[in-house]
Amino acid sequence: MNEFNFAREPGMKKYNNRDYVEKEPLISVIVPYYNSEKYIEQTITSILNQTFPYYEILIIDDGSTEQKSLDKLEEIQKLDKRIKVFHKKNEGLATTRDFGSGKSAETCKYLMFLDDDDLIEPTFLECAYWTLETNKEASWAYSDSVGFGTMQYTWNKYFNSEKLKKENELISEALVRKSDFYLVNGYDLKEKAVNEDWNFWLKLMAKGKFPVHMSFYGQWYRRKETGELQRATDNRKKSLEIINQTANQITKEVKAIQYPNYQYQYDLIPDTIEGMVVPELKKKEDKINLLFIVPWLITGGADLFNLQLVKKLNQEKYTITVITTETNQNVLRQYFEENENTKVYDLTSFLDHKYWIAFINYIIQKEKINVIMNSNSKFGYSILAYLKGKYPQIPIIDYVHMEEWYNRNGGYSRYSAMYGSVLDKTLVCNENSRKILIHHFGRKQDEVKTVYIGVDEKKFNPDNYDEKELKQKYLGGQTNKKIISFICRISEQKRPMLLLKIVEQLKKTRQDFKVLVVGDGNLLGRMKEETKKLGLAEDIIFLGKIQNTAEIYKISDVTINCSLKEGLALTAYESLSMNVPVVSSDVGGQKELITEDVGAIIELRQDEKEIYLEEYKEQEINSYVEAIDKILNNLNTYKQNCRKRICEHFTIDKMIENMGQILEDVKQNPNPEKIRNGQGLATNLEISKELITANLKSDEVEYAWECMEYEKKVYGRAFSAKGMNYKKELLKEKLWNIPMWRTAIKVYHKLRG
Question: How far is CA 742 from CA 409, 418, 435, 607, 638, in A?
């Protein structure tokens, strides 16, 4: 699931975009066209699907000679009144783009150049518009891109002006500030197919102009055996002559604004951006317009729960805007966007922290948001008091997956308790977490509800998979040995080194098993080294990340969960759904799912705050060994109960039904007490804004480190000495922040009155 899906091309179908009040266009999308009827409709549809409606589409026909191509333009022009078609004699791409700019409406501040076979993602124009409005000195905005067609690849390069003088790492699609376009006289080339877009970027850089690099895949560049790129390659000598002449005019390094960006001075955050146009819906819709704030879109259990929720909520009843707040590659983003009622904005990919609140206000107003939900986002929690003060009538809920005593003495449960006065409902994934929120954190019983995550029992169905074929794939053929699987992120929380101790002890009583380790993480390398030291290399197979874990469950006899902390592990749901018993540590709500007839629960004998220690009590190790031994000796008895338990109580459809009822109830019946609290907060929103600023400042080191980690992973950029200092400061903060957090809670409650 974490691989990029090249089949999901923008513009394959027309989205039913919402009907906004008409206003003058702010963006001219200029589409040069020449005998290209094959792809033009998909290109135009990708524009018509944009979430920002105030644009015009100028199709400039560069002297097409084929009648079917001209007929296609007449057909396209009828799709939307924002589309205009102009015809001119054939002069080449550069001249055609310049011609199109001359036809741009006077109200347009920005020009977007899109070739007639390329595509843009639905949020591209909106994000580019916002990033240029908040980075006034930047001349153009572009995103990472996708190559598709005869070649398939993802393209994300760190902007380097010196390298760009010799090698073109940009593509032609970008949103350009119109005033800067004319500052350099546009493309201003009569020659055809001479890397005119590369030359144009160099012209801007020669004037000291710079871009904004947005870090999401917003543009799709079609690769063909013929085309302007191929013709420019054939015309290389003339092209390089022009490029070198322009490049020589760049006398100093040009630095781009590149997201994620941590260079922010923490002055007071604005509510709105002056001059920013907010689209307005023509009529009120009787829908639940949900704003869903999450940290990221990755392959963890919480994220897969979020994905199932977003995908399965009734599209006729919901519109969903997902906002992510922490730096990540967001490998699940495409899957969240599969439904046309869902739009995703990664704030870290196109905006400075300073403007996040302004953008969220914009989204609430534009999308007529009537329910707000936050899950696992620290920033999301920090803005809830502000949002309730700004919009007292909008109900707010949160979903807490687990409490973490090693993380600020409670983790997200503590955040939830802090903001309980503005939360209509808090949802948790198990009864144990519910009891902790009520009895430890003092939440009201009727405001906390358990909604089990559930599992897609249709996907995780053992009848869908061929065991013999999968054993060949993963084990090299049939085997008489029992298969024990450990499927998780290989990190401290999952205690992978404890697993090795369990395997070492189990080997003393039986040798008829193999262990499959599935996943990766920061401890994977050490785990492999320790496996060799303990002489377990023949007993453990490391498979890395597996896209379809159901295949692993199919060949497994038992799965092991050694976690120090869980809410209620998705792998436990999946394993039981595939008829595989589970042995798990007694953490979170694991025993609510794993009863003695489908597995075993092992008493946790390690303090959560000792998460980095790798010293395990012999009694705990032996308890795992005894449980595994018992299950392997009575497999048939256990297996007949596993899937039945899931189908009767824990399916994804039951979860969606429960979540849907809760969302509809809070929309129809917002809590009057929370409304009054919001009205009280409304009297001084500046305090809430200052608290948000303080929260951002306290997380500065962590965010800077996350940005550096992103650059390291995506661009291969090495840590600087400054980066290593950030890392040291962050570790120090994690060790000493619990007393600071308690102080922050007292301050918050005092301000809240």
Answer: 9, 10, 21, 21, 46
For 689-741, give the DSSP string: HHHHHHHHHHTHHHHHHHHHHHHHHHH-PPPPHHHHHHHHHHHHHHHHHHHHH
Contact yes or no for 281/368 (Cβ under 8 A): yes
CA atoms within 13 Å, Cβ hemisphere of 546: 19
What is the torsion angle, in degrees rounded to the nearest 10, for the CA atoms of residue 220, residue 223, residue 224 and residue 225? Answer: 170
Q: What is the pLDDT of residue 233?
A: 60
DSSP-assigned letter for residue 38: T
Cα-based distances in Å from 290 to 323, 396, 673, 697: 11, 10, 21, 28
The model's pTM: 0.89
Distance of CA 686 to the CA centre of its chain: 30
Buried residues in 306-340 as b, exposed as e (16+ CB within 10 A): bbbbbbbbeeeebbbbbbbbbbbbbbbbbbbbebe
For position 747, what pLDDT does the model report?
40
Q: Quick one: pLDDT at residue 407?
A: 81
Kind of pairing between the strands at 119-120 and 211-223? antiparallel
Specify whether the CB–CB gap between 577 and 599 falls below 8 A.
no
Q: What is the predicted pLDDT for the residue at 76?
A: 97
- CA gap 538, 484 in Å, rounded: 14
Please state, in angstroms and rounded to a whole number, the distance separating the CA atoms of residues 20 and 120. 21
State the Cα–Cα distance between residues 68 and 76, nearest whole angstrom: 12
Query: Which amino acid would we find at residue 95?
Result: T
Please tell me the predicted confidence (pLDDT) of residue 155: 95
Which residues are CB-contacts of 737 (< 8 A; sequence separation ≥ 6)? 408
C-alpha closest to that of 44 among 57, 35, 32: 57
CB atoms under 10 Å from CB of 475, counted, come to: 15
Residue 236: its pLDDT value, please? 77
What is the chain's percent helix, strand, coil content, to nearest 5?
Answer: 45, 15, 40
User: CA end-to-end span of the chain, whole Å?
Assistant: 47
Contact (CB, 8 A) for 487 and 519: yes
Q: What is the reported pLDDT for 705?
A: 86
pLDDT (tens digit, 9 = 90+) per residue, 439-457? Answer: 999 999 999 999 999 999 9
Q: Which of the residues in the chain have pLDDT under 70?
A: 1-2, 226-234, 263-266, 719-753
Report the C-alpha gap between 564 and 403 in whole angstroms: 11
Pairing of strands 140-149, 175-177: antiparallel
Concatenated DSSP letters of 542-593: EEE--S-THHHHHT-SEEEE--S--SS-HHHHHHHHTT--EEEES-TTHHHH
Preceding amide of 672 cis, omega within 30: no
State how far the Cα of 275 lies from the Cα of 620, in Å rounded to an integer: 63
How many other CB atoms are found less than 10 A from the CB of residue 19? 11
Tens-digit pLDDT profile for residues 56-100:
999 999 999 999 999 999 999 999 999 999 999 999 999 999 999
Length of the chain in terms of residues written = 753
3-state SS, 438-480, equals HHHCCCCHHHEEECCCCECCCCCCHHHCCHHHHHHHHHCCCCC
pLDDT (tens digit per residue) in 522-537: 999 999 999 999 999 9
Q: Is 163 helix (H, G, I), strand (E, B) or coil?
A: helix
Q: What's the Rg (C-alpha) of the chain?
A: 28
